[in-house]
Amino acid sequence: MLPIRTSRPTLAAVALAVSLTACSAGAADKDPAAQSPASPAKVTVVDRAAGKPVTVTATGGKLTTVRVTDAKGESLTGRTDANGTRWTSDRKAAPGTAYTVEITSRGTDGRETTIRSPFSTPAPGKVNKLTLAPGKNTTVGIAHPLSIVFDLPVTKKADVERQLEVTTSNGTEGSWGWVKDWSGRDRADWRPKEYWKPGTKVALKADLDGTDSGGGWFVRDYATGFTVGDAQVVKVDLDSHELTVRKNGGTIRTIPVSGGTPGGDKRSWRGTAVLMAKEGTINMNSETVGLGDAYDKMVDYSMRLTWSGMYAHAAPWNARYFGNANHSSGCIGMSDENAAALYSLVKPGDPFEIKGAETKGTVAEGNGYGAWNVSWADWKAKSALN
Q1: Burial class of 288 by CB neighbour count within 10 A (0 to 12, 13 to 18, 19+)
Q2: Catalytic residue among 144, 241, 327, 331
Q3: Catalytic residue among 144, 241, 313, 327
Q4: 331 included as an active-site residue
Q5: Domains and CATH numbers, the chain
Q6: Is 313 assigned a catalytic role?
Q7: Global pTM?
Q8: N or C: which terminal CB in the chain sees fewer CB atoms within 10 Å?
Q9: 3-state DSSP assignment of residue 335
């Protein structure tokens, strides 16, 4: 006796690189026996690795919706191509994160199928962090760059720079440049072609979560914003031993000063040095800047100009040299009264434009904010995306 065979409609296999659950919906035929076989689309999660966008494809149909969420319920938004067969997330998948992909597709028979798939990315071996300057919601001088110092090395500079978006209220032209910070760490500065215009509002959006710097992964995004204040420039002439403060085109104070002693390591730097911070009364020790035991004293109205230790500050012990000779250990010294006045006038980001025949060289890009001593063409060449 021959075996009895029965025929049944078969569902096409749904292919995914991960485990899936599916459900389908469609109008039921009044005559089940006459119902044609279902033809769901074949859906595949192509990319699900940290540092890459999540990618979903469909064959034998089209993608209707794709939703990718993490354990916190936050979504990776994305878009489907014009053919409706490929979806790509706008952001990269982050390391050490659990995601769920929910995909709805429509097969050739018009039926929709929904598939859900969880996946997780491996935890990062090293996490890179950064320090932003200026601080958020601050008002700074016209020469302050937007500066990022990274905790770990950045060998994939182009990948990192692509994630850094700078916007300004007036369309200021500017460029990123990569320099080595005085600390030895990698640093990226965004400076305008010329000094900022007063009143400019600047914002940074650093969508770095899921980006591999080469020395470590970023596991969060960053943002900051600041406003540019008055056009104030401090001009220092060490040949005439005079400092002049100019604000919005007019001179508001002239101060006799004394710069670094000629003929050795105590000479001052020249070029544009940007006021980094107003540090008040601090201890200055010559051993920290390679000058042996030349001095160790508390100094008032200290205004930092470089990481290497050049300040503008009160130096009453040098009173006989103010306006007459350069006789400091590299700083720009002045009387207590004038130092107090200057301290109250300046703000971080104000440029100190220093000139003099008896100086020891130009302030380097990473020694404070020395980018202004580089031509615009050479600065743009320091961008990893140039």
Answers
A1: exposed
A2: 331
A3: 313
A4: yes
A5: 21-26+37-120 (2.60.40.3780), 130-229 (2.60.40.3710), 232-370 (2.40.440.10)
A6: yes
A7: 0.84
A8: N
A9: coil
